[in-house]
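Hypothesis: this fold can be encoded by more than one sequence.
Test: take the structure tokens below, design a sequence, compare later.
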């Protein structure tokens, strides 16, 4: 009787052990099929790009042409250059202009000059930003053309908000001799100096300025 009981317990133990091994095998196989327990081979995301100091130092303000400063006309002696009228003229002012009898003197233009491109180059040294600004353009013969020299007032200015860091009016001369084609020209201001910027917030302007040279024209010397 004792032997029968022992054999029954032994068989039951073997059956239980076999069931546990089978269940463990199924769980292991199931985990492999679902992908659990496997090593992740997905590459990590790339790190965020960092702004290099060399990129910050490479900042060179863009040169902009203001509205109305890209063209300059020269008129024959004795003719009157048409005045630019503001867009907000009232009816009374417009009537006075109409009754003044002034005529358009475009037929008396000697030279028509225009700026077609601007570019710049920047160097940083000793706390200052030195820019070389180039202005390219052309001079077209007008109806009253005669060979000669045209003097063009070209202003270069650097602004930081409302602060004027540099402003200089140049009188650039171009010899014009060909009555049948445009004469190309390039003007360069190689000594535009301003304090070294701490942010990308400088504005640089180039263009014709027909007003008289102002006493406020100035150059900001390099910081010592």
């Amino acid at each position: 009787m004792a032997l029968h009981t022992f054999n029954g317990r032994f068989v039951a133990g073997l059956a239980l052990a076999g069931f546990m091994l089978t269940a463990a095998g199924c769980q292991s196989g199931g985990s492999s099929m679902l992908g659990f327990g496997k090593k992740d081979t997905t590459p990590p995301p790339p790190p965020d790009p960092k702004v290099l100091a060399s990129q910050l130092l490479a900042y060179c303000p863009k040169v902009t042409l203001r509205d109305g400063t890209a063209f300059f006309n020269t008129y024959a002696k004795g003719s009157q250059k048409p005045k630019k009228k503001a867009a907000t003229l009232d009816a009374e002012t417009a009537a006075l202009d109409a009754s003044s009898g002034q005529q358009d003197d475009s037929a008396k233009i000697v030279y028509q000059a225009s700026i077609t491109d601007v570019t710049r180059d920047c160097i940083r040294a000793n706390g200052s930003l030195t820019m070389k600004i180039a202005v390219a353009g052309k001079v077209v013969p007008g109806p009253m053309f005669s060979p000669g020299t045209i003097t063009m007032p070209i202003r270069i200015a650097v602004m930081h908000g409302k602060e004027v860091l540099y402003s200089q009016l140049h009188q650039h001369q171009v010899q014009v001799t060909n009555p049948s084609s445009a004469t190309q020209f390039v003007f360069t201001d190689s000594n535009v100096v301003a304090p070294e910027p701490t942010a990308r917030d400088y504005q640089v302007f180039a263009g014709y300025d027909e007003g008289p040279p102002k006493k406020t024209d100035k150059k900001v010397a390099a910081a010592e």
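The first strand starts at residue 63 and ends at 64. Residues 64 and 201 are 13 Å apart (CA to CA).
Hypothesis status: open.
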